[in-house]
Amino acid sequence: MRRRRRPAPNRTPFPLATYQEISAFLAGVERRAFKQAMFAVRNEDAALDIVQDAMLKLTEKYAGKPPAELPMLFQRILQNTIHDHFRRQKVRSTWTTVLSALGKGAEKDDDYDPLETIAAKQDSNIPVDPADQLQQVQVVALIEQALARLPARQREAFLLRYWEEFDVSETAAAMGCSEGSVKTHCSRAVHALAETLKAKGVTP
Amino acid sequence: MIEKNQYFAKKITAYLDFGSANLKAGTAYRLQRARAEALARLTDPKRASRPGLVPAFAGSGSGTMGSGRGFRNGARLWLGIALIVAAGIGYQQWQGWQQLKDIEETDAAILSSDLPIDAYLDRGFQNWLKTLGED
How far apart are the first and last CA of chain B? Predict the structure, then answer.
């Protein structure tokens, strides 16, 4: 008996609305994700790789999820990708140190200058006065430096809680820790940032 | 206290927003390309299994996104192969040099000896040397 062929799967790639939602979500989150990765790894190329990997994982594996779950999913993917980067770097560093003697400067941590990542445009929300503009850029650079120097968990909690505007339970879920830990990390991060910036004469 | 923290955090994040809104044009472009690549996977899932086909990012300088990483891994592979080949060639050269050195030493010993070279070719003389050694 001849088996009935199953109907061919719908070749329409993706419902347009969902595609647009994912596209809009990624467009809205990509710059913040890049900055988050940058604070963690302090290398532009590595940060861009991390964001790209996170985006690819989201679209490849979790595209079928409801749009409301995307921010949380993306943050978890992003944080995992950052952790993977550090794991790979640790393994790699065992033998790249030998090659580094040959003059291969793999990391450019010392050369990192946050000012280079900021190129102010002539937008309405930027002060027209060049002095004010320069001051704002310098404050941003100092804040970014202070954030980059925070312990990883504190920075993660601060950025998720206040920049991504997750609530405490969402932040805890994204970080894989308790809500109490999130509160502690956030509080410590705020105090550490305030002290660092105060020491540099910055009052945001 | 919590409100104070939140107020402070809000001011900090406003600066972070400013920083992220004013990324370098090149960085913003590369992010845009990365997003386009990720979205292409939605419409063409087959691309997921072919990471090597991620297009190069034009003008990315020393960037490592997409094929840049492939290039980096490829460079490492070629470096490893080059090291192995160099080691092989080096070993061969060293062996040849050792052989030459041995021959030179033998020649020097023969030439500096009081005995004529013909003596070494004389079977009778060699037999005489052997019997001398046995005694």
Answer: 107
What SS3 class is residue A10?
A: coil
Measured CA to CA, the distance from residue B4 to residue A195 in angstroms comes to 14
Residues in chain A: 204
Tokens of B81: 């192969």
On whether the CB atoms of residues A26 and B38 are closer than 8 A, the answer is yes
Q: Which tokens is A22 given?
A: 């994912």
Burial B113-122 (b: 16+ CB within 10 A, else e): eeeeeeeeee
- Which of A92, A190, A193, A203 should one mutate to test binding to chain B, selecting the residue with the greatest count of B CBs within 10 A? A190
Alpha carbon distance A173, A164 (integer Å): 14
Secondary structure (DSSP) of A101-167: TTT-----TTT--GGGGB-----TTS-SSHHHHHHHHHHHHHHHHHHHTS-HHHHHHHIIIIIS---
DSSP one-letter code for B68 = H
ipTM over 0.90: no
Is residue A196 a contact partner of residue A154, using CB atoms and an 8 Å limit? no
Across the interface, do B30 and A60 touch by the CB < 8 Å criterion? no
Which residues in chain A are contacts of B19 at CB distance < 8 A? 35, 114, 117-118, 140, 143-144
pLDDT tens per residue, range B41-54: 877 655 544 444 44
**Could you tell me the CA-to-CA distances from A172 to A28, A34, A75, A120, B12 in Å, in that order?**
22, 21, 12, 35, 21
* A102-142 residue pLDDT tens: 655 444 445 544 444 444 444 445 455 777 778 888 888 99
CB A54 within 8 A of CB A41: no
Cα–Cα distance between A160 and A170 in angstroms, integer? Answer: 9
Highest mean pLDDT among A13-27, A35-49, B107-121: A35-49
Residue of A nearest to B12 (CA): A204
